Amino acid sequence: MANIQWFPGHMAKARNQVQEKLKQVDLVLEIVDARVPEASRNPMMNQIVGQKPRIMVLNKKDLADPNKTAQWLAYYRAQGDEAIAIDAQHAKRLNQIPQLARQMMAAKIEKQKSRGIRNPSLRAMCIGIPNVGKSTVLNRLVKKNIAVVGNRPGVTKNQQWLKADDTLMLLDTPGILWPKFEDELVGEKLALTGAIADTVFQEDGVGLFGLTFFQRAYPAALKRAYHLNDEEMALTPADLMVVLSQKMGFGETFNRAAERLIFDARQGKLGAFTLEVPGDFDGHAE
Ligand SMILES: Nc1nc2c(ncn2[C@@H]2O[C@H](COP(=O)(O)OP(=O)(O)OP(=O)(O)O)[C@@H](O)[C@H]2O)c(=O)[nH]1
């Protein structure tokens, strides 16, 4: 959907940078958006991370469907990773992450101690596609506002070592790992959640995608948010969009209703939602 011609070259560069730095760390904190845990990953992430121990951090859990978050946590644990769901924006502290890192790496810590290292520390790299909340997570972990937080995808640029506590050092992503947004479904999911810039997608397509999804997966929330009756709820998504547009006072201008629906979904007006579930990345299975 998006005209992103530079994708392959940038990706190779970022992948090499990450792989180089991975040699310096004991484990990886992979940050994803809990609403789109798979769509918000770089398509090469598993190859890039390889055998490094990993904690999957499902961030923005406040915006995600708790039942589906539980399914994703179980899924990642079954794959051999550790997994945790957090709300980095509102959490005061994120002590669970260093704790989990220490549990995972207990054998290594013991080995260091047996070699006489009194205060062994772990090194972790924090990776994730733009806008999943890496900077917010890092800020919470180091308890200072060091990393630059922005709501524009691609704000994190420089790399630095940060101290979470005496036992955990953190490295920010050295490059930008983009999602697979040349895949239309992935692009639509990322656009609806606000992970990609508004300039690279068409509102009407993304709005219709969102409406179709909410009609199917969260009908009660949709009905409540726009005061829809059963008859309106039974319309096709395209016809329902026209009804919404009229209700919103936009006449039959599809675009503005689509834009508003995207805005409302991102703001949480349609409730907490998750666009995909393990084993069915269309997100429709319950
Ligand atoms: N609701 C909610 N918003 C969050 C959470 N974590 C981060 N955000 C918001 O998500 C947006 C992106 O957060 P950043 O920390 O800048 O994301 P990033 O991954 O560092 O992004 P880049 O700098 O683009 O790589 C900001 O508006 C944050 O306030 C969360 O747990 N819940």
TrEMBL record:
Q: Does the keyword Nucleotide-binding apply?
A: yes
Which residue numbers delimit the CP-type G domain?
A: 15-179
Kindly report the protein's main subcellular placement as a broad class. cytoplasm
Q: Which InterPro entries match?
A: G_CP_dom, GTP-bd, GTP-bd_ortho_bundle_sf, GTP-bd_ribosome_bgen, GTPase_MTG1, P-loop_NTPase
Task: Report the sequence similarity comment from the record.
Answer: Belongs to the TRAFAC class YlqF/YawG GTPase family. MTG1 subfamily.
Keywords, ordered alphabetically: Cytoplasm, GTP-binding, Nucleotide-binding
Instruction: Outline what the protein does.
Output: Required for a late step of 50S ribosomal subunit assembly. Has GTPase activity.
Tell me the PANTHER family matching this sequence. MITOCHONDRIAL RIBOSOME-ASSOCIATED GTPASE 1
Q: This protein's superkingdom?
A: Bacteria
Record's Pfam families? MMR_HSR1
Annotated protein name in UniProt: Ribosome biogenesis GTPase A
Cell compartment(s), UniProt: Cytoplasm
